[in-house]
């Protein structure tokens, strides 16, 4: 490290001790000048710190000598172990002697267990793991095994000391290191071991190791035990289904006197482990055995023996105190003589034969007296609680014997057989039980497995003790993950519930049936119209929607569907309207819908319409699924929809979409939160609460069964890629039983509970007795202001029009048009029309005339009231009042006579009565509180126990559970559930073919309708204005005009979006392209080129090459700082190498006349004549050559793939990547010796055609790798020419805000690419093969292909770079080839360059929007035929002059040495770039003729014609130019932009001045 001071002098900073922490260092520097002291801080990057491992080793050796002295403290041991761990971290593979040395040192360090801190234990565990791995990685020959036997013992001894220190402060990570070291020792002891020999045993204070290789038939002969330990395993006959046939079995056993696991409850015995494996190391699972494995585990500290003597002649009761719950109680009886004993056990009371916890009769079956008189009470037989148990012993004696002189010694022992479950990180007793041979000193365990447990019908979940909540929550600081996660879910629920409450309030306002304002106040036949707007984007409308209904008996007048209190026809919304008609329309046939195309978003997608007759409760369905829009689908705002038949209703499309829509919007709990039906009683808050409850319950069941280990021998159900075990099926079944029943009950309560009836306040008595004076006042006020003779005329005209419309007869238009028609004339016309229709329809029983007569009577009564209110003063002619009143009364008498003879009034009354529904069986309204109690209870309990489980599991396991739970939930919500709903919809559509009925609550509607008809005033004024334009469909001409205008608006919007999106795309492209470029790359390349090109001449001989290599090359390659080139800024990565390519001998023939003077000839380099033979030193024939390996490889050909190189372009040829190679070594001295050897051995001779010096450097200042190739090539003329090829590559992504911004830009760029792919896919689908005839489409396709190619190249560069870096880190003393990475990087750079080029070309496509630029482009297209012909002529002229110049000057002038060079020179002449002097100096006369003629013909004649063609095409285009649609669109966009800024456009001014156009 050499930071520079202000005086440009370097200084070094050395540390007395090294702490190998991989982080930057902060150095405090103090400078003293005289009496003044100044301070400064410097941050030293970790990459600049050079840590010499040799110095660390020396420091470690010095510190090892201080062990046992006063300096040997806890911190000393911790620092020393840290340094050893850092030495072993990235070291080369250890030799046997190194392993022995480190193991011996480790024993000396850790033997003082009291001074081992937790950190020191962790470092020691890391060292143990490395030593164990090294022990097995060494070639385990018999010689090495015997030499390393002591090393294995030292590793076990260190592990024993580590266990002793581990007993004080336990850390979970240390266990993994310890077990890894023990496993490595086992593997070492079994290496090359002969079967059926003596076992290998290593015994220490706290750890015993056993390893042996046995034949299968010898496994169950003897128990497996260690000499110094009484723990043992005895296996039953395992059989060929478990053990391999004809192959020995490896037995690994370890006894730990100290529990090696940090978690779980304390263990009071030796911890023993045993496993079986094959000779190749693969494990043999032993589980679900029919015969049990017998295991004896001695207790480390024998508990106090609870022994009592019971005299059966005097008393027979003793007391046993149990201090641990759910433990096995072993009671041993030792009678003084053989007796039959009846033993009863009672809890906190004296047991009897009828009241006891357990009973047994002794002796039982057994192999010995001790076993027969032993009673084992395990948890499966009796779950023991903490407390005092009374034991009653009664001897069974023959009849007549009243007393017995005998005694029994009772010994009680509590024990438990458990094993460690790695997946659950806890102790478990599954598959194990305590045996009868258990004593106070040794526990007998009988297990059916070694490392795995068997399966049962119900998989038992993990358990947690809620009584230890305080203890678990005390660990919150160490493991806050699950608690915080559950807390975040509760907070999210509260916020979501608040949002849901607001949504419910908004939806409540929408739940209503809108009574249309333009209903006839005297029409009493009611229809409920339900209109569903689609869910497609843009489905809602702002237009005025009109509907008419056609039936068998007639049709209704147009009705405006609107509600002044709420918005209607929103996306996905359902609107209900009450439409009234004077009479029944009969069976409906069709409906007619249209709108007036008003508002900001007039387009409307209507999904379905359902009309219900409230009198007969008959329904008619209309499957619309159509756009009413001027620019979408059929481009119309008016459509007629027929009634859907039963076949239509059962069609696949209708059933599928109705089922999936209902399931998503109402039935599915999660999705319905957002899009529930507004008329559903299941509120949004309730749905959110149910989701919350289901989520917490699911999380509880998930964490209960998380980490349940499975038996590998368990049979699986293979379903292709999916494999299930029975335990997994049972876990899913049990989880379902725990989660769904209670939540289904909650959802059912919320969904089915009847709504609470609102109580209405009774009106006060005094209000009932008050006359309706206020209503009369309002009515009189209305009469005075609005009731006039003209109003009466319009009302009579409206009645006449509606009557004619209902009777389907012509209406007297003259009367309708005349504004001066008097009332008498209109009434006469109406009376005549009534009499006419009566005569026509009196004999038609199915006519609507009788029904409409009843309605007409009400209307005329209303007219009579209007006439009376108007009075004599309201008429313009005197006497008109009496005449009009008499006319109306005469018509009423006529109609009343007709009505009295018709039964329509009775029918109307009977039809209007609502049907009575059956009694409701839904729960009452107060049941909703039960649902809320269940929601709160399940949520709180589930959340609380989930937090307890999380606190018990530990931080790492909790994080793993959260990740798996969130992943599973997201997958289920985003993929599984939608797919399930879709498949259910398909099933219903294909199999069930049933549409779910939607029950409407119509009782309330009928009551409202009845109430509304009963409360009519004496005089009613219709609010319908038939003169409104929207009551008639728009004319086709207006629709076409609106459609054109809309299309133009859409094109303008699409044009603006196209420009903005492309500018964004181009910005991201430029940012991505230039973000990968480093401006420092050029300066790095220039610096290296200039440094290594010193001493280079235009013509160099072989000796000059070696002189340059020994001076300039080595001086710059090995700079003044070791490992760095030139001035110390660029690190040399690996070694440099020198390589040459040669040609074969005698590769050309010498002319016969010259054979006597020239003996041989060798051609220039080509791939065909390259020499690929292997030679000995001095290019002698290769046989068996003595010498160093590097000296030999310099004369042997190595292929391109072997060297990991690529072909390289030189000045004269393309050279292969293979050749003859010599590595220059890591330092200058070694490189000088190798170059001298090559020089002395004539490594370069006349057959050498090119010499390559290859190396790679890394400059940390600019974070760039530079792959350098210095080329010295010969063209067979005996001289070398110098050329350098350098390429910079960035492999380490710097961390910072700009890099994050650059990564975000890449993501945004590919989002643009995906968007363009979508657009091009739509174009391809629409245009098909015509798509490929458009050049701009091909340009977009090329951009898309190159974009994805750049992504694949970026990924390939990253992967290949990591491979090269890893190879370098493992082979730092070799040449690391980065050529593949450099090639990918170069390809990526070229692809990005072409992307930028094509992106800028596409910018030209946008310039077509400018009229002037469009004229230029059209002119070029018009002149293309003439220009192409003239281009061929120009090319022929230039080619002719190029051929002539190449033949004349090619042998002498460098500019014309090849035909391409000559063509370049002649082409440059046309644009004024030409070297006249070299041509004139070579041949003045001929050169002047060629140059002058070329300029005259090509420049002045042909190019002038070329320009003339273009000018003529421009003139013709301007004369014949026709404005395109795009020009009109651009004009519209510009007009809108200018209007936005307040600028008046010229076109608008012309329109204002010429309004008639």
User: Which word captures the global form?
Assistant: flat
* Secondary structure category: alpha+beta
Give the N-terminus to C-terminus distance in angstroms.
Answer: 85 Å
Contiguous runs where pLDDT drops below 50 for at least 5 residues: 1-11, 16-23, 452-460, 709-716, 760-784, 814-820, 904-919, 999-1017, 1548-1557
Kindly provide the radius of gyration, computed on alpha-carbon positions and rounded to a whole number of angstroms. Answer: 50 Å
- Mean pLDDT, all residues: 77
Total discrete domains: 9
Q: What about the largest sheet?
A: 7 strands, antiparallel
Helical proportion, percent range: 40-55%
Measured by DSSP, the beta-strand proportion falls in: 15-25%
**Number of helical segments with 4 or more residues:** 42
- Secondary structure: number of strands: 44
Question: How would the blueprint of this fold be written?
Answer:
Layout: E1 25-33, E2 36-44, H1 53-64, H2 74-89, H3 96-110, H4 118-137, H5 142-147, H6 149-166, H7 172-190, E3 200-203, E4 207-214, E5 224-226, E6 229-234, E7 249-256, E8 271-277, E9 293-298, E10 306-311, E11 317-322, E12 328-335, E13 340-347, E14 358-362, H8 369-372, E15 374-377, E16 387-396, E17 407-415, E18 419-421, E19 426-428, E20 432-434, E21 442-447, H9 469-473, H10 481-510, E22 513-515, E23 525-533, E24 545-551, E25 554-555, E26 559-561, E27 574-581, E28 588-595, E29 604-613, E30 619-628, E31 638-642, H11 646-649, H12 652-667, H13 672-675, H14 684-704, E32 716-719, E33 722-725, H15 726-752, H16 765-769, H17 773-786, H18 789-807, H19 813-817, H20 823-841, H21 849-870, H22 880-900, H23 904-911, H24 927-953, H25 955-992, H26 1003-1014, H27 1036-1075, H28 1080-1092, H29 1102-1117, E34 1124-1125, E35 1130-1142, E36 1175-1176, E37 1180-1181, H30 1189-1193, E38 1197-1198, H31 1200-1203, E39 1208-1209, E40 1214-1215, E41 1219-1225, H32 1228-1240, E42 1248-1259, E43 1264-1274, E44 1280-1289, H33 1297-1327, H34 1335-1370, H35 1379-1406, H36 1411-1422, ...
Parallel strand pairs: 22-27
Antiparallel strand pairs: 1-2, 3-4, 4-7, 5-6, 6-9, 7-8, 9-21, 10-17, 11-16, 12-15, 12-17, 13-14, 13-16, 18-19, 20-21, 23-27, 23-29, 24-25, 24-26, 24-28, 28-31, 29-30, 32-33, 34-35, 35-41, 35-42, 36-37, 38-41, 39-40, 42-43, 43-44
Helix pairs in contact: 1-2, 2-4, 3-4, 3-6, 4-6, 4-7, 6-7, 10-14, 10-24, 12-25, 14-15, 14-24, 15-24, 18-20, 18-21, 20-22, 21-22, 27-33, 27-35, 27-41, 29-32, 33-34, 34-35, 36-40, 37-38, 37-40, 39-40
Organism: Danio rerio
Protein name: Polycystin-1-like protein 2 isoform X2
């Amino acid at each position: 490290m050499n930071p520079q001071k202000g005086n440009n002098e370097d200084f070094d900073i050395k540390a007395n001790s090294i702490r190998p922490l991989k982080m930057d260092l902060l150095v405090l520097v103090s400078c003293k000048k005289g009496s003044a002291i100044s301070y400064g801080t410097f941050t030293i990057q970790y990459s600049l710190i050079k840590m010499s491992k040799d110095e660390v080793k020396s420091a470690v050796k010095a510190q090892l000598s201080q062990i046992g002295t006063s300096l040997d403290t806890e911190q000393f041991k911790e620092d020393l172990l840290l340094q050893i761990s850092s030495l072993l971290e990235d070291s080369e593979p250890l030799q046997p002697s190194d392993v022995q040395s480190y193991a011996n040192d480790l024993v000396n360090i850790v033997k003082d267990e009291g001074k081992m801190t937790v950190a020191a234990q962790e470092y020691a565990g890391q060292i143990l793991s490395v030593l164990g791995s090294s022990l097995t990685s060494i070639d385990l020959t018999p010689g090495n095994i015997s030499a390393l036997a002591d090393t294995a013992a030292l590793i076990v001894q260190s592990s024993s000391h580590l266990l002793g220190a581990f007993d004080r402060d336990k850390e979970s990570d240390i266990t993994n290191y310890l077990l890894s070291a023990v496993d490595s020792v086992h593997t070492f002891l079994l290496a090359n071991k002969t079967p059926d020999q003596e076992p290998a045993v290593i015994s220490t204070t706290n750890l015993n190791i056993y390893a042996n290789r046995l034949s299968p038939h010898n496994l169950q002969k003897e128990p497996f035990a260690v000499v110094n330990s009484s723990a043992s395993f005895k296996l039953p006959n395992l059989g060929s289904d478990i053990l391999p046939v004809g192959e020995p079995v490896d037995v690994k056993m370890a006894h730990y006197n100290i529990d090696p696991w940090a978690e779980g409850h304390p263990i009071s015995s030796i911890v023993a482990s045993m496993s079986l494996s094959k000779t190749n190391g693969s494990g043999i699972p032993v589980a679900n055995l029919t015969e049990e494995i017998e295991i004896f585990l001695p207790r480390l500290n024998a508990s106090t023996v609870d022994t009592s003597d019971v005299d059966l002649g005097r008393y027979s009761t003793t007391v046993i105190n149990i201090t641990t719950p759910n433990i096995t109680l072993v009671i041993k009886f030792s009678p003084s003589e053989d007796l039959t004993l009846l033993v009863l056990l009672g809890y906190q009371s004296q047991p009897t034969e009828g009241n006891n916890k357990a009973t047994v009769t002794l002796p039982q079956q057994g192999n010995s007296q001790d076993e027969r008189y032993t009673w084992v009470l395990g948890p499966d037989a009796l779950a023991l609680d903490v407390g005092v148990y009374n034991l009653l012993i009664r001897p069974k004696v023959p009849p007549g014997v009243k007393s017995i002189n005998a005694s029994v010694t009772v010994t009680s022992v509590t024990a438990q057989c458990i094993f460690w479950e790695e997946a659950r990180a806890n102790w478990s007793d599954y598959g194990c039980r305590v045996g009868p041979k258990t004593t106070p000193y040794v526990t007998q365990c009988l297990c059916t497995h070694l490392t795995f447990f068997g399966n049962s019908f119900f998989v038992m979940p993990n358990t947690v003790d809620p009584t230890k909540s305080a203890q678990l929550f005390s660990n919150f600081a160490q493991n806050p993950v699950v608690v915080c996660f559950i807390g975040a879910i509760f907070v999210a629920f509260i916020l979501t519930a608040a949002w849901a409450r607001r949504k419910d309030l908004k939806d409540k306002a929408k739940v209503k049936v809108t009574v249309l304002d333009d209903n006839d106040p005297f029409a009493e036949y009611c229809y409920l119209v339900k209109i569903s707007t689609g869910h497609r984007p843009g489905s809602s409308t702002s237009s005025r929607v009109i509907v008419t209904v056609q039936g068998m008996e007639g049709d209704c007048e147009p009705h405006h569907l609107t509600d002044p209190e709420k918005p209607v026809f929103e996306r996905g919304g359902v609107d209900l309207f009450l439409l009234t008609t004077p009479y029944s329309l009969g069976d409906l046939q069709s409906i007619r819908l249209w709108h007036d195309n008003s508002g900001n978003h007039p387009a409307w997608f209507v999904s379905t319409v359902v009309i219900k007759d409230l009198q007969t409760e008959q329904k008619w369905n209309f499957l619309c699924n159509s756009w009413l829009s001027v620019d979408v689908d059929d481009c119309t705002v008016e459509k007629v929809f027929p009634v859907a038949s039963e076949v239509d209703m059962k069609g696949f499309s209708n059933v599928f979409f109705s089922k999936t829509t209902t399931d998503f919007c109402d039935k599915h709990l999660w999705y319905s939160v957002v899009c529930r039906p507004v008329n559903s009683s299941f509120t949004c808050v309730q749905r959110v609460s149910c989701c919350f409850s289901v989520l917490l319950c699911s999380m509880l069941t998930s964490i209960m069964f998380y980490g349940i280990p499975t038996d590998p021998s368990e049979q699986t159900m293979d379903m292709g890629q999916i494999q299930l075990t029975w335990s997994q099926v049972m876990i899913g079944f049990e989880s379902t039983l725990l989660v769904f029943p209670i939540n289904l009950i909650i959802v059912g309560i919320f969904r089915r509970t009847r709504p609470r009836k609102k109580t209405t306040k009774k009106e006060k008595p005094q209000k009932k007795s008050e006359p309706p004076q206020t209503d009369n006042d309002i009515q009189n006020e209305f009469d005075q202001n609005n009731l006039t003779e003209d109003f009466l005329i319009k009302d009579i005209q409206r009645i006449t029009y509606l009557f004619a419309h209902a009777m389907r007869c012509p209406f007297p238009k003259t009367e309708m048009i005349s504004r001066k028609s008097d009332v008498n004339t209109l009434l006469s016309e109406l009376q005549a029309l009534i009499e006419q229709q009566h005569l026509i329809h009196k004999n038609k029983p199915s006519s609507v005339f009788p029904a409409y007569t009843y309605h007409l009577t009400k209307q005329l009564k209303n007219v009579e009231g209007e006439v009376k209110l108007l009075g004599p003063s309201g008429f313009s002619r005197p006497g008109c009042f009496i005449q009009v009143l008499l006319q109306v009364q005469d018509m009423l008498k006529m109609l009343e006579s007709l009505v009295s003879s018709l039964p329509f009034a009775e029918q109307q009354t009977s039809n209007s009565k609502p049907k009575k529904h059956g009694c409701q069986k839904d729960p009452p309204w107060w049941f909703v509180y039960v649902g809320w109690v269940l929601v709160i209870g399940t949520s709180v309990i589930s959340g609380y126990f989930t937090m307890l489980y999380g606190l018990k599991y530990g931080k790492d396991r909790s994080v793993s559970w959260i990740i798996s739970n969130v992943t599973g939930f997201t997958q289920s919500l985003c993929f599984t559930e939608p797919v399930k709903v879709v498949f259910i919809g398909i099933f219903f559509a294909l199999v069930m073919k049933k549409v779910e009925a939607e029950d409407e609550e119509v009782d309330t509607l009928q009551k409202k309708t009845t109430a509304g008809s009963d409360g009519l005033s004496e005089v009613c004024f219709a609010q319908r204005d038939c003169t409104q334009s929207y009551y008639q469909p728009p004319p086709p001409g207006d629709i076409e005009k609106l459609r054109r205008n809309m299309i133009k608006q859409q094109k303008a919007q699409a044009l603006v979006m196209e420009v903005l999106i492309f500018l964004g795309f181009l910005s991201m492209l430029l940012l991505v392209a230039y973000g990968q470029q480093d401006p420092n790359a050029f300066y790095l390349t220039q610096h290296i080129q200039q440094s290594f090109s010193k001493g280079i001449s235009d013509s160099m001989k072989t000796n000059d090459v070696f002189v340059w290599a020994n001076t300039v090359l080595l001086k710059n390659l090995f700079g003044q700082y070791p490992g760095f080139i030139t001035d110390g800024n660029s690190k040399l990565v690996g070694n440099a190498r020198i390589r040459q390519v040669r040609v074969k001998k005698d590769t050309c023939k010498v002319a016969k006349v010259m054979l006597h003077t020239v003996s041989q000839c060798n051609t220039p380099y080509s791939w065909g004549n390259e020499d690929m033979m292997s030679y000995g030193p001095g290019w002698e024939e290769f046989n068996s050559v003595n010498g160093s390996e590097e000296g030999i490889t310099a004369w042997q050909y190595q292929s391109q793939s072997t060297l990991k190189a690529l072909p390289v372009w030189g000045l004269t040829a393309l050279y292969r990547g293979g050749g003859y190679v010599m590595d220059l070594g890591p330092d200058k001295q070694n490189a000088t010796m190798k170059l001298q050897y090559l020089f002395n051995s004539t490594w370069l001779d006349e057959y050498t055609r090119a010499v390559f010096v290859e190396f790679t450097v890394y400059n940390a200042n600019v974070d760039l790798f530079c792959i350098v190739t210095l080329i010295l090539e010969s063209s067979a003329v005996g001289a070398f020419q110098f050329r350098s090829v350098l390429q910079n590559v960035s492999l380490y992504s710097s961390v910072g805000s700009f890099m994050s911004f650059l990564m975000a830009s890449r993501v945004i760029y590919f989002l643009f690419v995906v968007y363009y792919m979508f657009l091009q896919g739509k174009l391809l689908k629409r245009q098909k093969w015509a798509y490929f005839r458009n050049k701009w489409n091909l340009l977009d396709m090329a951009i898309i292909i190159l974009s994805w190619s750049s992504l694949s190249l970026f990924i390939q560069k990253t992967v290949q770079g990591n491979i090269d870096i890893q190879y370098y880190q493992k082979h730092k003393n070799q040449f690391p080839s980065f050529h593949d990475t450099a090639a990918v990087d170069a390809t990526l750079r070229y692809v990005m360059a072409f992307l930028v080029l094509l992106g800028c070309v596409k910018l030209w496509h946008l310039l077509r929007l400018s009229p002037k630029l469009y004229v230029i482009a059209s002119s070029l297209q018009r002149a293309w035929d003439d220009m192409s012909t003239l281009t061929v002529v120009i090319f022929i002229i230039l080619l002719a002059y190029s051929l002539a110049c190449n033949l004349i000057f090619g042998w002498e002038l460098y500019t014309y040495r090849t035909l391409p060079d000559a063509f370049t020179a002649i082409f440059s002449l046309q644009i004024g770039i030409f070297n006249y002097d070299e041509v004139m100096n070579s041949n003045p006369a001929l050169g002047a003729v060629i140059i002058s003629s070329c300029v005259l013909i090509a420049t002045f004649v042909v190019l002038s014609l070329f320009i003339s063609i273009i000018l003529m095409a421009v003139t013709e285009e301007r004369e014949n130019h026709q404005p395109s649609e795009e020009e009109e669109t651009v004009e519209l966009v510009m007009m809108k932009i200018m209007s936005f800024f307040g600028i008046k456009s010229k076109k608008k001014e012309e329109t204002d001045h010429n309004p008639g156009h």
